[in-house]
Structure formats: C-alpha cells, structure tokens
C-alpha cells in the first residue's frame, strides 16, 4: 500500500513539486538578506514619538517578521512608505520594492493562477506529506525497522541515491510541506487565522493629546514584541492608538495612555505564527535557509524516483497470457519488493510455456490453495526484505498459509532470492519453506537460493526442478530478458601460468565510446570501479558470466583477470581472444567491494584470478594510502599477473608491500599461511583501523576468515564486528 | 453597537434588495496612484456618534483579508447577512470606482455619516479614510481622503 501511494503521489505531483520547491529554495534566501538584527530597539512609545516627529502624515507603523520597521504615511506628497531605524526612529529611506520576491512568492503560492493554482499547489503539498510519510515507511521496512532508519545502505544507482538523499532531506521536506498545507488551508479559510481584535473603546479622551513616549500603554510594549501601530490622524482628537503585539491587540488612549481595551492573540493565531516562521524562515532566517536548501532535493528525488519506476517496469519484460488458477498446470507465486524477482518468474513461465505447460502467475498475497485443482506443481519465488521480512507482494502469505486447512495435492517448490552480503540471506524463503512443511505440504525439492540475481543459481535450480518434476525444461536462465550489452574490443592479452591448458589471462578491452548524453544518464560503462562486475555473454549461451573488474572507468580501459576453467565455455572463449576481437558484455555495480574511502590502511588478500579486482584498487591508489597485498598463486612458473605493475606501484608508493604465497613450490603454502606468519603486523593494522578486502575462490575466503577470527579474538573483535563496521569485504566465486 | 431602529430593520428585511422609500446614492471614489496591490474598500453608514448602522458596499478580493478594513470589520465581523450581495471587485492603484446603492430616506439628512475604510496588502490599513455626513449639503462636494483615497464624491 505504501509503495503504491508513494509511486502515484510522486508521479502525479512531481512537476508541481519541482516548481514549488525550487521557488521555495529561492525564497528562502530573502529573509537572510532582509532581516533586521538591531538589538536595542526603541519601545513602542518612543518609536511612535520619533516617527511622528520625523514623518509627516504617518498613518501606520509595521514591524514585519524579519524585524524590519516601516511606516506608511499620507502626507502632502501623497502616499509613501519609509523604512525606519528600530533603534533611533530615524528615517532610513523609502521602502525598496520587493518585486522580485513577490513574483517568486506568487509563483510559489499559486503559479500565477490565483485560486485554481493555489488549490493545485495545496494538493501537491498534501501529496508531498504523503510521499514523505510513505517514503519513510518504505525506507524503515527496507532497512529492517524504524530504529535502523539511518543505518548504512548499500543501494546503488537511482535507488541508492533516492534513499540517501531522502533520508537526509526528508524531515525538512515534511516540515516545509506540512506548514505549507496549513498556510494554504488558512488562505482558503479552512483553518482559522484570526488577527486579535480588541473591542472598539466606548470612551476616548478628547483633551489635548500627550506625547507618545509618555503614554504608559505604549512605552510598556518592548520594541521586539511590537507588530503594528495605527496612529491617530495628526491634529484630530478622540482617536486612539491601535496596537498589535505578539501577545494581542488593544487601543491606547492618546491622553491618559491607558490601555482602553485589549484582546489576547488566540491559539490559532499563535499556531500560525509558529507555522509561518517554520515555513518562511522570516524571523529565523538560517533555519529557513536550511529548510530551503533541503527543498533542492525535490528535483533529484523526483528524477531518481521516476528512474526507479521505469527501471522496475522495464525489468518485468514481455508477458505471457496468464492462465486462470483453476486451469493452470503450474501455479507460480511471486514475493517481490522492487520487481526484480518478476523477471525470473516471467522467464520461468516462458520456459514452462516452451514445453507446453500453462502457468498461473500471481503475487504470493493472492495465495488461494482451494483453486489449484489442476495444478501439477506449485512454485514460490520469494525475495527477502530487510532482516528476513516478507517483501511487499508476499506480506499476507504466511497468514493465508496458516489458515489453509489441507495442503494442495501438488508438491511445493520454493526458490529464494536475496543478497548473500546481507546477514538474512534468503531468510524469508526459508521461513516460508518451514511453515509449509509444518502444514504437511510435500516439497518437490529442497529450497534453493539465487544470490544477487545470478542466472547461474537460477539455472541450477531449474535443472533440479526439471529432474524432480519430470518437465523437460532446458536451461531456464536462457529465458531471462537480456540486459543490453556493449561490444568490447580486446586491446591486449597477457597469459600467465605453468600450463598452457589452464592459464590465467589479463585481458584489456577498449572503453566503449560514450555520447555526452550517455555520460549524463550514467549509461553502462560510464561510471564503474575496480571491484564491480563485468558480465560477459559467451557465444552459444545466453547466460552471462561475471568477472571482477580490474580497472575503473577513470583508467580509460576495461580490464579483467580470467582463469581458464577446464572445459569452461566463457573462460575458454576469453582466453582464446586475440587483439581486435570483440565480446558482448555489460557491467553491474558491486558497491560492497569498492575500495573504501578515507585514509585507513588497506589489507588486500587475493588468490588466483581474484587478484584482478585488488590490482585495480592498487592502480587507483593514487593518494598512496598504506596498502598491503597478500597474493596466493600456484607457482612462479609462467609468471605472475600484474608482476611488472606491482613493482612500479611499490616503487612509487601505491603499494606498501607484497607477500606472495605459492602453493606448488619447495615450501608450499596458501595465502592463509602467509597471513598466519604476519599475525603481529595484521593486529597492528587492525588496531589502526585497517580495511580488509578478500577476492578469490570460496575455499580461500573461508580459510582466510578462520585465520582472521584467530587474529581478531585477542583484540576482543571478530570478523562479524569488522563486517558490521564495513571493514571486512569479501568477493568470492 | 447601537442597532438600527426596529422599524427600519423590518423594512430592510422585508424589501431587500429593492428598498421602499429609498434614494439611490452614487459613490464616486478616485484612488491615489500609490503603486501597490489592488486596494480593498468598505463603505458603511454610522450615526453621528460613529456607531455602525448599515453596510453600503465592499470592494474586495478574498474575505480572508477583510479584517484589514478595520472599523468596518470590527462592526460587522464580515457577516454575510450584512453584506447581502452589496460587493464588488477590489480597485487598482490610481483607478476609480463608481457604484450606486440604495439608502432609506429616513437615513438622509438625519445626522448619519458615510465612512470608507481602505487597505492595501503590504502597505497600510486606513480606517476612516473618508468620513462625510449623509446630507444634501455634502452631496456633490468632493473631499480628499486621508489615506489611499485621492477624492470622494457622493450624489443623490
């Protein structure tokens, strides 16, 4: 519900909100420029006396919310407005016309469309309040609860930017939008905003008037609480001073100085004072400027929100006709938050269609087991949200499952989708599996997990599902809608390794040309970093293979390090490339494995082809922060990837030192052993806040983790601690 | 506030908007060239003591700003029953306004006064910009206002 509210309120109001917010930013500067910060202000009596002396025909003195004092006078020369020094009562000069400010104010309030425009702005502001509240609810869910609302988020691209900016600026936007709605409603008369009105005095003295600075009713009003005084016409008797202050309004006798009548400012009026102050910054110009600058985020939030929405739509791909639940061979239910899991569901439905099976595709929230009469198989694709929570489209599933009397005859399969860098990886899919088993529902096969949308994981599950169900499915990942790829041309290739059959290759491709628009749109290959992934589509297979990038877009080329796997399709093709040959590829961000910002030392640990991403980070270490590399290879025979570069980087300070561990040498050892030999040094580095980054095979990753637990335990730390601080990052394959 | 005599009130209630035994009065107002937003003007009658008797005309935009027509608003509270359709658009700087209203014969030459309150946003509120007696001697005589009104004349 929050997502739908957020989406439609955003789309409907975006353009208006951009206009209103940008004019709001501009308006927020005016109070800062015009505010009067005079400290020692004359009291009302002294001010009136000075004005009556200095300004002929003075009719009304006003003190605006910025503390600026003006007097309106109807003298011999007609109407004039003058600025008055609050400390002396002297005339400072004529009032400057605020034409520019008024122009922006009218655009901000009603788009120059009077009441219609004002109503439109009001509705957009209500939408803004709804957007902020639903947005915070979504953010809290995504981050695992309201208390984690300001926790670190690893989101990338438009979604990450949207969440980052919204969490900083959101509170300010709520204040601005809510107070704006209040003021709009007051202008329309829907919220009362009564000025205090004292009853007209029944008796006013008509004797000779006293000087204003001798009237107790006026001199008792401090200058900083005065808002306006209406003066009696000069030379006319029987007219009282009408004053308005922060506290209320009243009439002061021009002879006795007595406050003849008084009305306190009402609660509504006081509330409006606070609202007005918060919204305009008039009276608190720095706060106003701060809120105004937060409004700058609105165009960015609108744009990134639109990109998220468009991205979500295009990911869903082309759809098959949906078969009704009662008639379908396979019931496929999807629990997804942002829409990415639907891409896999559509692919699976297409694969089933290819082998003549009909599918009913629906949200997990639409779980209606009584209708699945013809179904041969029931499949759940369940993503996980936050700390193991149900995603949006599965929110009601567990309750419906609990209410089910008897499980359907068709067996259940569950496939979990998630990100293994989060602690609760696929936790919701596992919860669902246990709940179904507890209900006595037969499982067709064990629950599998798809990590970060890896087509490989999906293909593996598809194969097992085909075997268990008897459906003659091929590779289900080939039905996934393809990401658009770019063609990369090989520039250079270096082969390493003791045998020609299983070499490790460092491949460098030219950076694809980009248009300016492409750069602005951050299209693929315009902004990648070492540690991100290059996804290569091999010939003869649609499923992309991912390799860590050993370069960033700033380096001006695309480099990867590939180990030729025995019988490997993609790695074989890559290692056989010659300069001038091309491949089809796209990048995906992998923000959790970027070189961290800051000056803390880096400990880089890699084995085999995993050296690529780490070498890329050292290449990018132009600021020469302390960087230690532990590198495991089989042997020196056939050379070591990046060996020449490592020497250069060590010479110029980009690499502090390199420890090599060779597993096939006279003294064979793995990189884990090299770490154990350097325990004291590593402990010192950890104490100094070092970040640890590990790239290589999964076994190496596990081994290194075990060594680090031993290194950290005496420090009262654990790998988990470091991970939570963002100081231990792993990228294994 | 002193109320109208019951007879007058009853007459008004029964015959409004066309009043029996009434005279047509034309109010002709020329504003100063003060160079600001459009002015709001409220025309009304008081007795000789300044006690509100009856609304004549209001030239304004949103009723939200009526409270700036100070004396008129203090007496009427902006009540719709008082205004009863006797209203029109606000008047720009340097422009004039000519409206004709009906006033009971009993109020003419009887010590009653025409008052005009004016107000301009961002500038000033002027209660009693003009005060003239509602009698034959004053009719047709041009007077100056003390605020935004440059000149005011009424004819009957």
UniProtKB/TrEMBL annotation, chain A:
Q: A Gene Ontology molecular-function term?
A: flavin adenine dinucleotide binding
What is this enzyme's EC? 1.6.2.4
Q: Report domain FAD-binding FR-type positions.
A: 483-596
Q: Where is the signal peptide?
A: none
Q: Write down any Gene Ontology CC term.
A: cytosol
Record flagged with keyword Transferase: no
Q: Membrane-spanning residues where?
A: 12-33, 119-140, 168-191, 286-310
- Pfam families the record matches: Flavodoxin_1, NAD_binding_1, PepSY_TM
Boundaries of each Flavodoxin-like domain copy? 330-466
PANTHER family according to UniProt = NADPH--CYTOCHROME P450 REDUCTASE, NITRIC OXIDE SYNTHASE-RELATED
Q: In its UniProt entry, what is this protein called?
A: NADPH--hemoprotein reductase
Q: What is the lineage of its organism?
A: Bacteria, Pseudomonadati, Pseudomonadota, Alphaproteobacteria, Rhodobacterales
From TrEMBL, chain B:
- Extract the signal peptide range: 1-22
| Protein origin, superkingdom | Bacteria
Q: Determine if Signal is one of this entry's keywords.
A: yes
Pfam families registered for this protein in UniProt: DUF2271
- The protein in question is named Tat (Twin-arginine translocation) pathway signal sequence
| Record InterPro entries | DUF2271
Could you list this entry's UniProt keywords, alphabetically sorted: Signal
Lineage here is: Bacteria, Pseudomonadati, Pseudomonadota, Alphaproteobacteria, Rhodobacterales
